[in-house]
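dude i think i finally got it to work??
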Amino acid sequence: MVDLHSPSDWLRTIARNAKRLLVFILGVAVLAAGVAMLALPGPGVVVIIVGLVILATEFTWAERMLDKTTERAAGAATKVTGNKSGQLALAASGVGMIVAGIVIAVVFSDYLVVGISVAIAGVIGLCTLLPQVQAWIDEKATHPSRQSTD
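look at this
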């Protein structure tokens, strides 16, 4: 039970809850943008993970969801990058998305944000081919993190 007899107790309680509310609003907004990017151009899974990272700073349930999401994304990435044809397809699609994003941004200036997000998604896809990223992905896919408890 919270003791709210002094003004400083009131201010601490309000500040703590205001921070949690702001983190919740920002995290849900980023998470919703990531979910939208699953159907729209953009790095949806990465943005979903960023939204969960924001929420995990205040909420244990979000930390658990972040662990599960990261494990699943790493498992999917390992399947794609685990063979030469998958790596070539990922490289080709990454380069294609970068080129398409630049063309969209330059030729169709009204769709600048779309072009930039498509190009960023291509760069992120290419980054998954880096050896350091591959090692991290393999680690996440083969050794799931421990779940936190409340």
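The chain has one domain: 7-142.
im so relieved honestly
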